[in-house]
Design a protein that fits this description.
The protein has 31 helices and 26 strands. With 863 residues, it is of the alpha+beta class. The strands form five sheets. An eight-stranded mixed beta sheet has the order 19-26-25-21-22-23-24-20, covered by helices on one side. Strands 9-8-7-6-12-13 form a six-stranded antiparallel beta sheet. It has a five-stranded antiparallel beta sheet with strand order 1-2-5-3-4. A hairpin with a 4-residue loop joins strand 17 and strand 18. Helix 13 runs antiparallel to helix 14 and helix 15 packs parallel to helix 26. About 1% of the residues have low confidence.
Length: 863
């Protein structure tokens, strides 16, 4: 391999040879109509020859550090950089660099720029992690700065970035770009999508006087221009006090801009439109939105870099070119993390809604509903009641006219009769649960006989049974009856008595809520463990080690057999649950029982014996007392007896039916786990046959793809590896609540003016006000809660319920009135506010906060 390659010898496929920046510049130099300053690349072969053997031992030491250990990273990275800069460049390597410099011309200045092999890639930008040197004059200076670029692979920021993003230090090499300097009158950055909204139809241009380094480094404010469909849609002309300019002897300096030029537009309208057009041309060549660095050299536009934009959320694939609007499923299901392909495809088979996927997330295409004024208003209202931010975002889309309206069709058909209202009868719920249990038992029995292609066919057929059980009309009537009764109580009791969210207190300790019962059941497990100090000490070791085989070791401790039986009884009923349980590929509690140990130990520390029963009884008593007080106050009103009778009927209805709300998903997850066990058994057979490398490789195949693999006994290892890499990328993205086919992400707003200064708005889902210490938690296995804490997290699903017994309030970034956290918070009597944007960033762990669960906001209290 050569130590030096000219731009004309390089294309985008040669990242391993010339790094991401070098490969993109070589590719750009081949694009007709794109002017790239001439240059060459010092290849990774030179880096390996000079640097590799000298620092291998220190790279091993570096890989052992944690990204949070800034002091150790700082010391070791500085040591490596110093060592690299001190290495002599071998004569044959130096000779190639000097010869390439001579061919371009020794007169004039050059830019010497780092180009790592994990840089400017579609899934990782590494922007700003390595060094660039401008206005370098002479071969000797170029050689010196090549060494500095090599060394910059080990800056503290670059090392930390790699550690945090899972890139091995030994797997990344450094090339160096040497390129003729351009001394522009203006320079800047052009992105072919709106950097704020991600709208792919918008080109956004930042521009400043002098070298672009001033903008990239954040030294100066930029003029900002936006172009949509060939028209300039906005201009922001900044006051520009400084510019980075070259120094004749080499290097750059910051200079003040003359007073009379500070408020001048950097670009004319014609230049803005030329840049936008060129940006679209480059985007079309690379096939994805681009982040482009440009210079204006006289009238000529020079391009000095183009890289993929790695932060844009992907757009679902549509079958047509029409505008589409997508609503996040994860924000409704309280699971906004990326899902693996098998999990996505199984959910799509389960759902009856028009499901699409992008970025490892699921979305419902609501376009058709938005075309009709009637159905549009209903959808916005319904989703707004569930999640005000989704409702507001959808209303914004509707108001813009993004989706064309279709005239209402007057139907002459007789509408089907509405189902008769159901009686408030507990036996209805009992019968629904019995039917679901019988169906699950049949699945568990029958699936054991299936294998090979017939297993996949069996599961696909059984999903129809899952849909029948999940979407049974009677079950939906029960859930809607509970919701309608709750809304009626809130509306009427506020009108009659001025009580806000009165139904919240009335739904404490409702019978039959399988999820809240799960949280209390783990308190009962703690009761079994508490009397056995040896077992407690052992579980503390398990908590540190995360040993999932700990159940097998319990027998050697006094009381261990009883403890094992209690935990296994809990897992028999709830072990199919886990964080992110709507994704079949996520590890279940039965598979990773150590996940529960921190919560069990917390229950032992924070509660006494019998806390589970006491907690339920206290909630039941509070609900009954609230009911008696409300009825007494109603009877004192005009027509009080009638109002009290109506209210009592609604309270009875909400308490009879509310518990069922959590049951269908519980049994859906149970069914998913049966599927998963059977599919993993089949995957083991595929591994034994040499078709797959690992049983969990099936998680990276869609259901239909897995069916084909099982049928043909052949799988693409390359496809699976690509899916794994894509999944790692998707994990870094934040799912939007609403997404359009233009790529625009909309978060919505609360638009409230009734909040105290500095308050964080959200949705009131469980009444009451509480003050306490905020515990910001991202992983339930790492939760260290004490009695009285307020849980602050991105979202909660049923797997978080065991934590709810230890807290006094709840704040989440995601959620709605009937999502898991809200339902359980009401049943446990916890003040809760959900949908608080960026709560985990704005609230620090350990801060004191006040949660206004009745009015829907959070205050951060002074330290």
């Amino acid at each position: 391999m050569a130590f030096v390659l000219g731009f004309g010898e390089i294309d985008r496929t040669q990242v391993a040879v010339v790094g991401g920046k070098g490969a993109n510049l070589g590719e750009l130099s081949r694009v007709e109509g794109v002017e790239v300053p001439a240059g060459f690349c010092v290849t990774t072969e030179a880096f390996t020859r000079v640097v590799g053997p000298e620092i291998e031992d220190r790279l091993v030491e570096l890989s052992r550090l944690e990204p949070e250990d800034r002091a150790a990273i700082g010391v070791l990275s500085a040591d490596i950089r110093q060592a690299v800069e001190g290495l002599a460049i071998p004569e044959d390597v130096a000779a190639e660099i000097v010869d390439a410099h001579a061919r371009l011309g020794t007169e004039g200045a050059y830019a010497v720029r780092s180009s790592a092999t994990a840089e400017d890639l579609p899934n990782a930008s590494f922007a700003g992690q390595q060094d660039t040197y401008l206005n370098i004059v002479g071969s000797g200076a170029i050689l010196e700065h090549v060494s500095r670029c090599w060394a910059s692979l080990f800056t503290e920021r670059a090392v930390t970035y790699r550690l945090r993003n899972g890139f091995g230090h030994k797997s990344i090499q450094m090339a160096v770009v040497v390129q003729r300097m351009v001394f522009p009158r203006a320079a800047g950055i052009l992105v072919t999508a709106d950097p704020v909204t991600s709208d792919r139809r918008v080109v956004s241009i930042d521009a400043g006087f002098g070298l672009g380094e001033a903008l990239v480094s954040g030294l100066v404010n930029a003029d900002i221009y936006q172009v949509r469909d060939g028209n300039i849609t906005s201009k922001t002309i900044a006051t520009k006090k400084l510019a980075v300019e070259p120094v004749p002897s080499g290097g750059t300096e910051v200079r003040e801009i003359a007073q009379e030029r500070r408020n001048e537009p950097v670009l004319s309208d014609a230049e803005v439109l030329r840049l936008a057009q060129l940006g679209r041309h480059i985007e079309a060549h690379f096939g994805s939105p681009q982040d482009i660095e440009w210079c204006l050299d006289g009238d000529a536009i020079r391009i000095v870099q183009s890289r993929p934009i790695t932060t844009l959320f992907p757009i679902p694939v549509a079958a047509d070119e029409e505008n589409h609007v997508y609503v996040s499923v994860g924000h409704q299901q309280m699971m906004t993390d990326a899902m693996k392909p098998l999990g996505i495809s199984l959910w799509q088979l389960t759902s009856r809604a028009p499901m699409r996927d992008a970025g490892g997330r699921l979305f419902v295409d609501v376009t058709r509903a938005l075309t009709s004024p009637k159905t549009s208003a209903g959808l916005v209202a319904a989703l707004g009641k569930s999640d005000p931010l989704i409702g507001d975002a959808l209303q914004t889309v509707v108001d813009r006219g993004f989706v064309p309206r279709v005239p209402e069709q007057v139907s002459t058909a007789t509408p089907p009769p509405a189902p008769a209202p159901i009686e408030t009868d507990p036996s209805i719920v009992t019968e629904l649960i019995a039917a679901s249990e019988a169906s699950l038992d049949a699945l568990t029995r029958d699936i054991k006989a299936e294998s090979g292609p017939s297993l996949l066919d069996f599961i696909k057929t059984d999903i129809q049974e899952l849909q029948r059980v999940l979407f049974t009309p009677l079950g939906l009537q029960v859930i809607n009856a509970a919701m309608d009764a709750s809304f009626w109580l809130n509306d009427q009791l506020q009108e009659w008595l001025g009580e806000k969210n009165a139904a919240d207190a009335l739904t404490q300790s409702v019978p039959g809520n399988v999820t809240s019962e799960m949280g209390l059941a783990l308190l009962d497990v703690a009761d079994v463990i508490r009397p056995h100090p040896e077992v407690v000490a052992y579980l503390q070791q398990v908590e540190q080690a995360g040993n999932d085989d700990f159940l097998n070791e319990l027998a050697q401790y006094q009381g261990g057999q009883a403890v094992r039986a209690a935990i296994e009884d809990f897992l028999d009923k709830y072990g199919m649950r886990c964080a992110g349980e709507i994704d079949i590929t996520r590890p279940r509690w039965t598979e990773r029982p150590a996940t529960l140990v921190p919560t069990i130990l917390g229950n032992i520390k924070n509660f006494g014996p019998g806390a589970g029963r006491q907690r339920f009884d206290d909630g039941l008593r509070d609900a009954e007392q609230t009911k008696l007080e409300l009825l007494q106050r109603l009877r004192a009103l005009p027509d009080g007896e009638q109002k009290a009778e109506e209210t009592e009927r609604m309270i009875d209805r909400v308490r009879t039916f509310s518990g069922y709300r959590e049951y269908p998903k519980y049994r859906m997850v149970s069914r998913y786990y049966v599927y998963k066990q059977a599919l993993l058994r089949e995957a083991e057979r595929l591994v034994s046959a040499g078709v797959l490398r690992d049983p969990e490789d099936i998680f990276y195949l869609r259901f239909d793809e897995l069916s084909e693999v099982v049928r043909t006994r052949s799988a693409s290892a390359q496809l699976i590896d690509e899916r794994k890499e894509a999944f790692r990328t998707y994990q870094t993205l934040t799912a939007p609540r609403v997404l359009t086919s233009d790529g625009e992400t909309l978060t919505g707003a609360y638009r409230r003016e009734d909040l105290p200064a500095g308050a964080l708005p959200g949705m009131a889902v469980s009444a009451g006000t509480i003050e306490g210490r905020a515990r910001v938690v991202s992983d339930i296995a790492q939760a260290d809660l004490e009695a009285g804490d307020i849980l602050v997290t991105a979202y909660t699903d049923p797997s978080w319920t065991p934590l709810f017994v230890a807290i006094t309030g709840l704040v989440t970034e995601v959620g709605g009135l009937m999502t898991h956290g809200a339902v359980i918070a009401r049943e446990y009597g916890l003040p809760a506010v959900v949908g608080v944007e960026h709560a985990t960033e704005l609230i620090r762990d350990g801060q004191r906060i006040r949660v206004h669960g009745t009015d829907g906001y959070v205050e951060i209290l002074p330290d």
